[in-house]
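Appendix C reproduces, verbatim, an entry submitted by the partner laboratory led by Prof. M.T., so that reviewers can inspect both the input and the predicted structure.
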Amino acid sequence: MISEFRLPDLGEGLPEAEIVQWLVAEGDEVRLNQPIAEVETAKAIVELPSPFAGVVQRLHAGAGDVVEVGSPLIEIDVPGGAEEGDGAQDVSSAEPDTVEPAFPDEPERAVPNLVGYGAAPRAAGRPQRRARGGRPAAAETDTAVREAAPHDIVEEAPPADARHERPRSTPPVRLLAKQLGVDLALVEASGVTGIVRREDVERFAARDTVGPAAEAETPAAPTDARETRIPIRGVRKATAAAMVRSAFTAPHVTCFLDVDVTETTRLVGSLRSDPRLAEHRIGILAVVAKAVCLALRAEPSLNSRWDEEAGEIVQHHYVHLGIAAATERGLIVPHVADADAMTLPELADAIRELTQTVRSGRATPASLTGGTFSLTNFGVFGVDAGTPILNPPEAGILGLGAVRRRPWEHEGEIALRDVMTLSLSFDHRLVDGEQGSRFLASVGDVLREPGRAMLLR
């Protein structure tokens, strides 16, 4: 029986998704729940699990194609089913209990949640798909994250043969390679992730123009190519729409505060040297996050949203703390759920895990919506201050500047101190200047003298 799998709704009512790469090829055998493709929405990169067990007959779209929800993705020949010709099955509307494993020795497993957030965990020892070249697909590698900030990441390199089976890159890089006449399969990734980046393609194209042997392998870049056109889609498109909506809907106000954070940096140093807390890798971002949660208790207007349709102001009695992270796909703001209920070590762990998930492109749509207040750390780029744009429909966002040693008045004398600039933007419909100023001052007070309050809930 030929069964057809259509692109399901991946959450939040997103109308389309882009095929990042196929994990199977026509003629491959697939098992139930086996990941068959990676697709990119405006929210995240999601692995699609197979709802059938059988042999792949046809792929309806190629890597880089944008597919609408409900459109056919793949056809699979399912053995032991109804006779061919009875009609293709639309799994996006099928009941979960109608799909059964086609292999008798396959342990019974639950059918994956197709309207949601990726494939079921890989079972130990589960056979991998057969690659086009007859070589089994290489195993995926995990990424390790430094604690310093959500923008500072250290990742482990994948196995050497993983990057030669199918070149991995983002859609803009694939477009650039096409424009420059570069075969991505010949481009070596310079980073440790195995992902081919823009500079890798440009370096390869430039090298080809000077080497006769290389020119025989790959066409040289056009000499008149002085522009690159990149399709507006995915995260960049969603971010642009959200920022325009934010800028032209919520009246923004931004205020700034220079804070002596010397005691906070000392606290961070002492916590890192404590063997009992060393594994948590607590950094200044986690301390600021804790300070924000404490300050929001006293100023709940910063933890609210404007409901235009209902004509109401909704105050949240919990803090879903958004952490803005710059990724290759664009700016993403996932949130730590119930951050106000966490201790400082728990909060540091949650931020680190969230950062690792986002950097690997595995953030779920659920984690990218529903935040109530956000932090953005542009200090990691050496910037002192800025005017953060609200992440709608949140009422506030706090920007962290770089920590710098400055001459500062301390106990009646001038001394070198660690100083940070905080930048608070808020929605003036929800927050008055007095409330915003009190909130910013409260955060500053905690950072000046963090004390033992940082370890309390």
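The chain has three domains: 2-98, 144-217, 234-455. Additional entries are available on request from the coordinating office.
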